Queue: 2 jobs
Job 1
Amino acid sequence: MAFDIDNTLAEINKPILKETVEKLLTLEKKGIWIAFVSGKPAIYISGMVRQVGLREAIVIGENGLNIYYGCAVPPRVIIDADVKEQPRELLREVHREVHFHFKERVWFQPNAVSVTAFPRDIKDMPELRQMIEVLFSRDDISSELVFYQHSDSIDIAPKDINKGNAIKSLLDREGWSKEDVVAIGDGENDIPMFKEAGYTIGLNFKANFKVDINVQDIKAALEIIEEKISNL
């Protein structure tokens, strides 16, 4: 099971609900591997997973940059994607340009590689989006990087670092098949993950990809998952 976090497992800046935690623990007890796949840094996700109480969760951070086995510090296994110097330098340039223009109006998530910009006032989101689009009108940036807009932020990442490639690496390592994967997410950055899954569940999903089923909340998604497992 590959779960996005924000606006999927929990509302933005809200805890995972107790009943959701109980369902996740039950899935793990049944032998289901659970992966948390997010644009947040892997170490941030690890802390959250420890509080959930899962023993063997897989953490995928920064939209596929890092894969951690378990949530201990240091992780039991770490798989880092290879990022070339060219996209790294372009990301540093994007960071500088956005910071120069917005100053304190934007907060940057403390990522290892990618750039995630949060407007402190959500009314500044259209201006931030416009600036990112101007930067991406440059061929060097658009050929190496990709951006995803969320309700509260914009992620800018290397083009070949995405949730789908991370899931594929995981499948190759473990010998699992695409059909073994159920992916649950709500946003554009979940599309690469959906493409590597045998079954896809969207939560109020509106991006340009046809999920197998679109539901309103995580409770409905977990009910579908329970039904699928019971039919195995």
Job 2
Amino acid sequence: MGEQFKIIEYSLIILFIVTGSVFLISTSDLVSIFLSIELQSYGLYLLSTIYRDSEPATSGGLMYFLLGGLSSCFILLGTALLYANSGTTNLDSLYIITSISDDVYDAIPTVVTTFVAIIAKISIFIFLLELVHYTIIGTVVGLTQSRIKRLFAFSTISHVGFILLGLSIHTVESTQAFMFYLIQYSVSNLNAFILILTIGYSLYCYAIGKQEDTNKNNDNLTDVNNSPIQLIDQLKGYYYINPIIALSLGITLFSFAGIPPLIGFFGKQMILSAAIDNGYIFMALVAILTSVISAVYYLAIIKQIFFDRPDYIINEELKDFNAEGLITEKNFIFKKVNIKTNNIVISTSLSLSISVITLVITLFIFIPEELLSLANILALILFNL
């Protein structure tokens, strides 16, 4: 657990990632976009493999790097083809191309115009079918997962279907819904992973009750020091250990499922309203169906947390642990503390982060203006609405 405190490159890597993200948001040139993506991606590659002694982290980071390299090749190929046909890499200069379509329709023969108009609609329809693929795959495969981070990964695929649905409609309302959904899902996802991290730290003093259960769990776990919570079964009965953290995780999972009146419900409502208003009835029905199915595995996690009895007991090696600690400031001892397993608390930064984000998820219904205004402003800036 202590390895992360020995790594001094964290701040520099985070700075590279944030810098790349800011450049990506603020640029409108394809070359600058590519460089911004690369700057951000290199930081993410390093962050993925920063635990050098962890074989799973290293192999996962290597796969991430190879996938990113392949994606970069496609970005460069698309940029080169666009430059070869238009003579520019600036997205603002490409807007004039869209205004030529009315002249093209008017100038070419009617038979050809019919073909050109239909092909565009077919391609959009196929793109919408891909959205169905995204939402269904993410939902159905998530039902079979027993590992918590894999389940969140497939859950993300399902949510990407919602995000792309809002983006593909391309109206003012759908774009604003897209931005709001992206913001609320990012906030909820951040809270979920902070909670998983916190639960892992809080269980370091505990062990599985039966030795055979401990051995069975250990066989399915890898790199426990850096990822203490890996299986959904490890959350069993956590409500009886720390009710506040369990309640925060339950609220976050309900928000993922779109249960009112949490913030996730309003994100899905905005996307579905935009889809129905613009005639995308079939896509809206598919999105509703997959959302209902995905609620099954969220509820399965909640059942284990709140209704199953915990297998955890205080670790025998730490049961009688008792130590005296000294808190100093400027070489002056101003407080003595007694450290036991029953008075080890979560750090202030984690507690504050979880509290603030959980309150935002829960109380959004009473203060919606701030996030909605932020989503509208971002939609206006990024999409020139």
